[in-house]
Amino acid sequence: MFVFKNVKKLQQHLSSINDDKRVGFVPTMGALHEGHLSLIKKAQEKSDHVVVSIFVNPTQFDKPEDLIKYPRTLENDLKLLESVNCNVVFTPTAKEIYGDTIQSKYFTFDGLENQMEGKFRDGHFDGVGTIVKRLFEIVKPTNAFFGEKDFQQLQIIKKMVEKHNISINIVGCEIFREDDGLAMSSRNTRLSDEHRLAAPFIYKTIKKARKKFKKNTAKKVINWVKKKFKKHPLLELEYFEIADQKTLKTIIKKDDDKRYRAFIAVFAGEIRLIDNIRL
Ligand code: PAF
């Protein structure tokens, strides 16, 4: 497994790979878990060569303390990647990516950026757009793999490649869950024991909401979820929304021709968890 910190060295290595080889790319912020490994497995199925990047991107954090506390486990990550036969790892510094000015570029994604996470995390998707575009320019993969846990991010990246004519195929991968249903996330390692025990309530509730949505209006389901969390002693609901899967616009009236998804963000103590489910 090759590990590069430097853009030029990475690119030299990648250009030595045959032109007709399919390069699969899995961008990450490290603290790798089974969910990441499932993305890598999917990448390996569809590629001749897999590149994983590990970079905690400062511009996508809206709160400085969240950036500081984000788990960093590089040594362990590299061992894990080696064990799954990853070919190349890119672990740049912020200077290598941004130069002297760590700043986002401004993006519009046809309004996708104004929904849900965009409403609650100021500048988040400008940060994501900036880093993903930069990494795409560096790695130039054939396919890039993103988890559906960050479904809004996935839709935004699909929109970015479309709007900027980037010829990279974006592959969405199903949410990987713990046995108790909690969606895997690097942030889960920061949960206290009691919040970790409480957190599967999120998936349990959205699964019940999916069932209720079959026979009830969206408004009824939303109110039901809000009530459930109001009664919960440890979990605080930030939002629960039912939205059109494509536009991410909040549902107004159920339309049989549309496909919907429920999206949720919850605070478990100071840790913010997100999840979503196809309805
Ligand atoms: O999903 C993530 O881990 C990050 O948002 C990404 C795509 C690696 C960009 O920093």
Structure characterization notes:
Helix content is 40%, strand content 20%. It has 2 domains: 2-173, Rossmann fold (3-Layer(aba) Sandwich); 186-278, Pantoate-beta-alanine ligase, C-terminal domain (Pantoate--beta-alanine Ligase, Chain: A,domain 2, 2-Layer Sandwich), CATH 3.30.1300. A 6-stranded parallel β-sheet has the order 1-4-3-2-5-6, with helices on both faces. A 3-stranded antiparallel β-sheet has the order 7-8-9. Helix 10 runs antiparallel to helix 11 (218-230). The chain is an alpha/beta fold and 279 residues long. The model has no long low-confidence stretch (mean pLDDT 97). The N and C termini lie far apart (41 Å). The chain is built from 11 helices and 9 strands. Strand 2, helix 2 and strand 3 (49-54) form a beta-alpha-beta unit.
